[in-house]
Amino acid sequence: STAGVVDLTVGKGTASEVTIPGTLVLEDGANDTTGPLFKIINDRGSNNGVDGDDCGTIGFYANDDAQNSQAFAEIFAEVGTAAANDEKGNLELKVATETSGALVTGLKLEGTNVADKVNATIGAGASSVTTIAGDLKITGNDIKASDGTTSITTSGANATVAGKLTATGVQSQNVRVGETAAGEIDTSTGGLTLDS
Fold this sequence. Notes:
Elements: E1 54-63, E2 69-81, E3 88-96, E4 103-111, E5 118-122, E6 142-144, E7 150-155, E8 158-161, E9 175-176, E10 178-179, E11 185-186, E12 193-194
Antiparallel strand pairs: 1-2, 2-3, 3-4, 4-5, 6-7, 7-8, 9-12, 10-11
């Protein structure tokens, strides 16, 4: 063991369950930069891990108005790829949805085959809404459509739209632009104004 470190194992076996009333506090009293670690381990009984193994789940439960115990939210981690030296993990944040109360993933983070690259999926379903308070800043240059093709490319203060730009609720006679010989929209003489 390490000086100043206390290892505590509560419960035994896969079906063990421990109830702790009140608040569980993890406190690191050492005068250093590190903090406490809450570690959840699935070691498969000391056997090799495989793709898709659950690393662990933290569930958040409360009673509904019929006094049924309901899972309202969940943090779920799994092994994406278990191959040694090529490990990739997935993390999902889930919440209960209306009618069925089933937990649905609203945020999913996925490790990739590229070092230091993480893919993120936000929302669930085509009608879900993602609200951003403040500005949206992208460090890449492309905004892609659902099929993966590039829809908008940004470069500095400029933006290029691939395909047709449609402004709904705007009458054509209220769109004032300058058109170049090549059929492009030239806003250098005064910009593009869309009047609703």
